Amino acid sequence: MSKKYVYTFGAGKAEGSATMKLLLGGKGANIAEMSNLGMPVPAGFTISTDVCTEFFENKGQYHDEVKIQIENGIKHVEEIMGAKFGDPENPLLVSVRSGAAASMPGMMDTVLNLGLNETTIKGIIKESGNERFAWDSYRRFVQMYGDVVLDMKPESKEEDPFEVMIDQIKEKKGITLDTELTPDDLKELVALFKTEIKKRTGSEFPTDPWEQLWGSISAVFGSWNNPRALTYRKLNKIPPDWGTAVNVQAMVFGNMGDDCATGVAFTRDPATGENKFYGEYLVNAQGEDVVSGARTPQPVNETTKSDPSHKTLEEIMPEAYKELEGIYKKLEEHYRDMQDIEFTIQKGRLWMLQTRSGKRTAAAAVRIAVEMAKEGLINKEEAIMSIDPEQLDQLLHPTFDPEADKNVITTGLPASPGAATGRIVFHADDAEEWAERGENTILVRIETSPEDIGGMNVAEGILTALGGMTSHAAVVARGMGTCCVAGCGELQVSYKDKTMTVNRKVYKEGDWISLDGSKGEVIEGKVPTIDPELSGDFGELMIWADEVRKLNVRTNADTPYDSNVARNFGAEGIGLCRTEHMFFEGDRIKAVREMILADDEAGRRKALDKLLPYQREDFYGIFKAMHDLPVTVRTLDPPLHEFLPHEEQNQEEMAKELGITAAEVKVKVDSLHEFNPMLGHRGCRLGISYPEITEMQARAIMEAACQLTKEGVKVYPEIMIPLIGTKAELTNQKEVVVRVAEQVQQEMNIKVNYMVGTMIEIPRAALTADEVAEEAEFFSFGTNDLTQMTFGFSRDDAGKFLKEYYEKGILTEDPFQTLDQTGVGQLVKIAIEKGRKTKPDLKIGICGEHGGDPKSVGFCHRVGMNYVSCSPYRVPIARLAAAQEALYEEKQLSKTSDLRV
Amino acid sequence: MSKKYVYTFGAGKAEGSATMKLLLGGKGANIAEMSNLGMPVPAGFTISTDVCTEFFENKGQYHDEVKIQIENGIKHVEEIMGAKFGDPENPLLVSVRSGAAASMPGMMDTVLNLGLNETTIKGIIKESGNERFAWDSYRRFVQMYGDVVLDMKPESKEEDPFEVMIDQIKEKKGITLDTELTPDDLKELVALFKTEIKKRTGSEFPTDPWEQLWGSISAVFGSWNNPRALTYRKLNKIPPDWGTAVNVQAMVFGNMGDDCATGVAFTRDPATGENKFYGEYLVNAQGEDVVSGARTPQPVNETTKSDPSHKTLEEIMPEAYKELEGIYKKLEEHYRDMQDIEFTIQKGRLWMLQTRSGKRTAAAAVRIAVEMAKEGLINKEEAIMSIDPEQLDQLLHPTFDPEADKNVITTGLPASPGAATGRIVFHADDAEEWAERGENTILVRIETSPEDIGGMNVAEGILTALGGMTSHAAVVARGMGTCCVAGCGELQVSYKDKTMTVNRKVYKEGDWISLDGSKGEVIEGKVPTIDPELSGDFGELMIWADEVRKLNVRTNADTPYDSNVARNFGAEGIGLCRTEHMFFEGDRIKAVREMILADDEAGRRKALDKLLPYQREDFYGIFKAMHDLPVTVRTLDPPLHEFLPHEEQNQEEMAKELGITAAEVKVKVDSLHEFNPMLGHRGCRLGISYPEITEMQARAIMEAACQLTKEGVKVYPEIMIPLIGTKAELTNQKEVVVRVAEQVQQEMNIKVNYMVGTMIEIPRAALTADEVAEEAEFFSFGTNDLTQMTFGFSRDDAGKFLKEYYEKGILTEDPFQTLDQTGVGQLVKIAIEKGRKTKPDLKIGICGEHGGDPKSVGFCHRVGMNYVSCSPYRVPIARLAAAQEALYEEKQLSKTSDLRV
Asked: How far apart are alpha carbons A843 and B6 in whole angstroms?
């Protein structure tokens, strides 16, 4: 049997199904599924992603078998639709659309109305009884074909030869709207377009529908590797070898007249998650018109209508709406997930064009998951798996303080929630450029388009004048978790002047504004923020997650304030408390500098004595905030020169303060200079050179712990030695800590449960973890440094070349964000294996930033760590990720983050 | 049965043997062996090193069993010697000496004449018939006991309370020599000594011989951990847990009169290796007198006599000499190695006190090994194993140019060969201090003592006014491979003025002198040097080594000159040719800077075009010098800022030269600044950012290779990409290299055998070597960087704390000198295993500096590398080390470097 390349659908059945996404793409698989479910789907066929792969392998050539199967596909459509491809009387028109396994909205190309030529148009005119519609369809087809297949698509609309010609005709006739063009105008345009095409390409515009079809299929396959698609895949981590499928489908028209419409809808509110059917539509329009934002769409139903002047689909086409209602309910029940659907109504008849899992805000995702579980549509475990942990980040950041004075200058649609403050820019490129120099920006556009993706990704927030809740800006912003206010009608944007005007007030590029994406508010200037609260659905979901996860989740916190924030987020202890952060505050830095400048141990001890009460107080506060939970305190880590000023003027100030000469300060600074401080005199190496520092810190920790114990507070200090590379280093520092700890307990006449362990952040420590574990009572992976040393990258310097590495595909993920499981992960595994060989019960955690990255949390679970530790705001993300990994391991449940890639 | 702690010897038999060095120490094991061989050894017993270990474990206490066995040991000696410990009539006197498994000359303590007190001295007077001898022995015993057991040994002789008293008596009596002291003077001194001891220690000097014995044994054990011994062990990498044995032996006296003598001898010349019995002795003296250099010793025989006024032992004690001759031959035959022996003649009777493998110069080691093999005493393989490869370094360095003008100001004994130039210092401390700031020094001393060990180790050469070929200075210098001229009689040294005077000319501290240790010449100022020649015995030994070794040995060379030097030393190719070294010469640096300053690719290419002919010429020369052998060329490695000036003045000069402003230069320098350049934009990361650099280098390599191939020269370029951490990096750079290489071959219409491989120097590359090997045609371990990243040490910065690490025992070896097999070595093994899993025949070598370190070479052999690559001067060392490892593996032969530790 020959390999199957083409899968047909239509008339209540299909060769494919929803499970075949990798082969048929998301669109193709779901159309097949809808067809199987007996829903009204225009007949068609899907050319599989295998053909895409072979297309690139064979440099644009197709196997004969592919050709045969496509020809049969067209026959299949002809039969069902009762029309014939290229037939002058009753011609079949088709659309050719891309459809990859992962949604890549607007990134690849589409050709509509294919099959039209000077002959078949007559059949369409006759059949539709609408000459203008027919010529407009032909005009659109030629234009689209020229853009997509013949590669005439320009960078900007202003340079589009077709748009220029349309504008010229409109000018000539003194009209402003496309709809005012007459059939003759459109006919003239078709002729002009064809002439221009001949001029530019040297060939006649193809009249043979088959030539049109093959050209379009190849163009859509080719668009898999266009620059926009490449960028999108990189941003969304979609493997380049997946390829796209191509869907060839009979055309249905929402623009044949006022008994036609087209729309998109969500089975639940994608912004809030509320269980109500939520959609927008336009009468007498094609799908592109709804999402482009050129006309403001209307709400589909009464429930979601906000403006009394709006006309709902429910009102004007009640039958079609009723059918749609039946379908959306069935789809949600069938897919057991909120769906994003597209439909067209042609002369009163409803056609389903697409269904897919709907993109949603984090808040919506949580609400939908929890409510679906309560409705019994899914179970708790599926609810947990349905949330992308990374997306929760949206819910875990500060929102605008409701008490703050806000000058709301206008409101738009609350398209993507969140609170953003930044400086106005008007072009995506500018947003990228400003972001590179560290500026927060708000990207203000009339409407956005797929070309703007880069700038939208770096902006703090997006504001558009046109477009609805399902506009490009809204959909993309929600996907990115970026705050967005869309369709803000009062906004006048001038790209030329780089200004936006609201109620006659002009705002220039660079001015500060704030956006409240949850309310749709545009606010002048900056607005103070407050911390999020975790309750309701979110809190419930977290309880469900905690019931199944096996990893503990701790936090990295250096202050009682952070400790409290993290505790509220569910942190089960502190995995990393960096003592050096405490060295900078107030008077302390003076004592620190005295210590560094001291000529001998006696001098250092004198200065350390001044630091001791401060450190003790710090630990007292943190231990108290974290009562009943363990707190891992790391001894001094950074090189000493970080505590000295490097500018001459500051050195002079410091000298004056300490009563010495600036020259003395400079000599010390110079003597501490290192070529590679990352690999220099820091971490345990400091404590080995100056045991009195470790002594002071151990004393401060233990005095605080003993005091609290006396007060009846339960404390579990875990003293952690950084930058261990050999067992002997740990032996040396542990001796100091234990000696002081025992002494303090004796002095204060009380016992405290304390441990001494080590960071594993030097490759050698991982490789010799069996030896290190002889001394260590716990391990904590410092994967930031471990990544730096395993890759030989300095995080401070690598920015310069890592950007190129992503562009050239040498790295696909930032190893400082997601743990490199292939390389660094091997060291982690080796260390765990060897460490537990020595001490089977060794407590092992991670305190690098990877502890808050969901993929890395999954890895930590799989390699058998006891806990992850992350920044306070990422604690819930880690809790959810840990739960998902546990479920995945136990029940092989799929993770949404895998499915929705 | 109880554990055996004490091993007796004497009267032609012994409980121990030479194989029991770890238990009995070198001295004890060899005395036992001599006793078993029927040689005249004063009876005695050895207390094993186990007792030393237990002594430290039990804080200075002994098991009862030890006490019993020692008491029995004394009985054994009493029986054989026919004398009784503490007996007033016929008292037994004993010596108590240390003796560790490894020779540690002069590092630990000794007590002689033990058993003397106011009663037993009468027996000695009666028995010896020499009252002066008896009181002198008593005086020495009390002094030694005070120094060693009662811890009264001062830092310098001038502060020694006993020496002060001796000087006072001499002054009072107007005499200058110790020998002029009368029995009454000595008796008075003994009394004065005892009073001083009482005063300082609060206790009477012990009169009970058993108390004396236990005190001495404990003191000798205790001396295992004195600071000198600790330093020596660290320098010589002797494990601290070995411990020392203690030898208690009946005293024999070389100082009882003119029919007595004492001497030390080597069975072959320790400086040249010549097969002649070579020794020195003194009539009427104790052993210390010979080695201390206080009296100039006489040659033992006519063959080695150089001064007609000298009296040889052969002349004055022909019978004893003849017996000694028989013994030395028997010992060399028995041990199959050159021996260093000590003997004493008491009233005409020869006693053997010690035999051990003799320390020798590298030249002597080679000659002895080759000659012994030819004599049939050992076989070729044993000859190979008998040389410490590290020691060959002495033979591989330049010697003074014989054509050079030399102002020889005086000559002394050629105590340790080599050529040294440096600035005069007079104290060991100064030598250390000067060395730290990078000064080359010559340490000039009247005589040296064990306290000077640190300074001797860092000085370029050692010059002494007193002492013979077996003096402390000579023995230690030879062991260290440091050039030494000893016993330079014309030299007057004033420590006070810090001057040395030769023939009335005064040389001050800091003046430059040169020493020719092979000729004994002291030369004014600096002398030019020439390269060594490798022929004769050395060449023969190398041929033998090459017959057995399996590892290839290549060299690291960047110029045709270095290539030739290495080729003469037997290099079988270049393992690392660093192209960047070529970037600095002449006009090139200008083009390099132009390239760096260029704003775009076009500008860079223009500058690179200027560099191309230079690089091609360089490679042409190197490939030609290395014809028929492979040459590994590494593409550009260092960060670009290394090629720009950092001082303002130099930036201005550069700006002028390039016709731009200094500000532009500064901007570029600043933009290239990195926080951790070691982990920054360097290695393949440069080639990925600027493929045109890799292109230029690949072109230069291939054009040179093609040209030479056309000329009939066989070339094997191996192009090596540095700093690979991921396979994708190598894929990227290999594509560039291969593309250019194919292009050049086509242009020049000739084929060249070339390979593209990679350095393994980033931990991640080692961990993912299976993937990297998919692209790499060879691996070369860059263990310098691999060590830096695995330890997290920057070599440039680690100096500050590594010193402390050695002092605190956290590291015992410099990981940049000897490969850290425990940590870094694991990555090497992982990489080899994984690399060969992908490509079973993968060629693998090492090009870090470890490639010339014998221990590391052994490791490279064991893990299955194909070659090591090292600096030209270390090629023969690597060849020998590789041969030894092969023999060790094949035949389990012991390496001298293990035995002689």
From this structure: 48
